[in-house]
Amino acid sequence: MVSAAPFIAVDWGTTNRRAYRIENGEVVATERDDRGILAVPAGGFPALVAELRARFDGLPVVMAGMVGSNRGWHDAGYIACPATIEALAAGVVTPEEGVSIVPGVCVDTKSRADVMRGEEVQLLGAVAAGLAPADALLCQPGTHNKWAVMKHGAIADFTTAMTGEMFALLKAHALIGSEMAGEVDAGDDFRQGVEACADADLLAALFGVRAASVLGHRAPGAAAAYVSGLLIGSDCRARITQPGQQVHLLADGLLADLYSAAITIAGGQAVVVDSKASFVAGITRIRNLLP
Amino acid sequence: MVSAAPFIAVDWGTTNRRAYRIENGEVVATERDDRGILAVPAGGFPALVAELRARFDGLPVVMAGMVGSNRGWHDAGYIACPATIEALAAGVVTPEEGVSIVPGVCVDTKSRADVMRGEEVQLLGAVAAGLAPADALLCQPGTHNKWAVMKHGAIADFTTAMTGEMFALLKAHALIGSEMAGEVDAGDDFRQGVEACADADLLAALFGVRAASVLGHRAPGAAAAYVSGLLIGSDCRARITQPGQQVHLLADGLLADLYSAAITIAGGQAVVVDSKASFVAGITRIRNLLP
C-alpha cells in the first residue's frame, strides 16, 4: 500500500500551513509556516504553490484543508457521509497540472448539517494505517472539535462541537474571562469542571464561576482549568452514550491529557492515536488512488 | 401594608440608574440615566446621591443593586438563602443618614455558589404584591438570567444562567457571529432553535449554525433568532423539570415573548408578571420594615 513515488503533502489550514515531503510512505522533510489561507492575497495561491514545489524538486502536491474551501484556491466541495477514502480520492480537484486538492466531508440531511475540511484525511488515515479500528468513535480535539463515527472504515457520521472556540471566547471576552487567567492542566480543578457539568446545564455552570469567586469558594482568576473541564466535559458527555465506550483520540500533549481525563470521567475509555502518522497515511493512500 | 411616608427608591445597576419617588406605594415621579456604578468616579457616590435627593425634596432614599457591591458605594453583603424580605430589611446598611442600601442574596453551600444583587427586591416584591404565589418558580430574563424557587414567600434557592451574555458574546466575537446579523423574534427560527437544543448538546448545536449556512440550509446571516432559541431553550429546559411547570416571568416586550414561547415548548406554562410593579412593591415593603 506504500507508494515509492515521492510527493508533497500539504495540510493548509486557516492560519497555518504544513508541508511534508513523503517518500515510500515516510516523511523525509517538513516545513511549517503561518501562511494559512487568510494570509494569502487574492489570486496568490498559484505563485505560493510554485515556490513550494520549487523547494521540493517540483514534485506533485496533494493538499487538504481550507485551501479547498470557497475562501481557498479552489472549492473542492464536500463528500457526503458515509465517506470512504476512495470517494475522497475520486473527488479530488486539480486546479493545475501536478496539484491535487482533497474535498471535505459533510453531513447534509434534512435534520442535520455538519462540515469538515482537512480532518477527513487524518480520520480515514488512522483506519488505513491500522491505528484505529474500522468501526470506532474518533475524536480530534481543537477549536472546532470533531467526533467521527467510523463504520467499515468510512466516516459514517460526525459531529462538530465549538469547544475550543468557546474557551477562547470566554477567556477573551466574557465577564468570567478575568477568572480564567491561570494555566490549564488535567488536575483537580479540571476534573471538578468535568464533574460539575454532569447535569448538562452549561449556561448556569459558567455563571457559577463568577459566583464562586465572589463568595470566596475559589481564588480570583484561578478558574481556567475548571472552565476547560466544564466545556470539554460537556462535549465528552454528549458523545459518550454507553459505559466503557472507546474513543480513539487524535491528539497529543495537553489536549490528549485533557480529553483522556474527561473521557474517563464521562465513563469512556480513551486510546491516544498518532495524529501526524494518521495524516501521512491518509494522504499517501489518497495519492496512490489518484490516476 | 402601604406606607404614607414618601421616599426615593433607586435601582442602581452596573450601567444604568433608575430613581422613583414613591408615595402611598405608588410611583409619582421617575428618573432614569446612564450613571451606572461603572460611571461613578471613586468617592463620587455621596455627592451624586445628595444631588438626587435635592431634586426630590431631600426625601430618604432606599437603594438596591450594584451600588451595594464591592464596586459600589458600600458593600452590603449577601443574605443566604432561604432569604425573606424581613431578612433583607434587617440587613440594610446605612452609609449616611437617610440612605439605605439593600443587601444581595446568595446561595453559599459546599456544592454550589450563586449571587444576585438587585433582583431580590423584584422577586420578593412580586410575592408581596400578590403578583406571584408564595410558592413559585420565578424567572427574570437578562444578561445573567435568574431563576428563583420561592417557598413560603422566601427566596429558597436560585440559579443564574449567562444566557443573555452568551448571546452577546457569540454575536460580537464568534465565528457564527456573522450568521447572527438578523433580528430576533419569537417566530419559526426561534422555535426551531428551542426544539434543536432538546438533547442538551449546546456546543455542537452552535457549530451547526455555521454548517447550515455553508451547506445552504439557512440563508447566510439569518441565524440570530435560531441561536437565541438554542440558548433560551437550553436555559428553560434545564429549569423546567416537570410537565406543566408554571413559571412566573418578570419581563415585558421581546424577552417576555421569547421566554414565554420557550417555556411553552419546554413543557412549562408561562405567566407574565409586571416587573416594575414588583420592584416598587418590594422596595416599599423594605422601606416600611426599616426602623
UniProtKB/TrEMBL annotation, chains A, B:
What are this entry's molecular-function GO terms?
2-dehydro-3-deoxygalactonokinase activity
Task: Give the record's keywords alphabetically.
Answer: Kinase, Transferase
Q: Name one GO biological process term.
A: D-galactonate catabolic process
Q: Which Pfam families match?
A: DGOK (PF05035)
* Name of protein: 2-oxo-3-deoxygalactonate kinase
Q: Which InterPro entries match?
A: DGOK, DGOK_C, DGOK_N
Tagged with keyword Transferase: yes
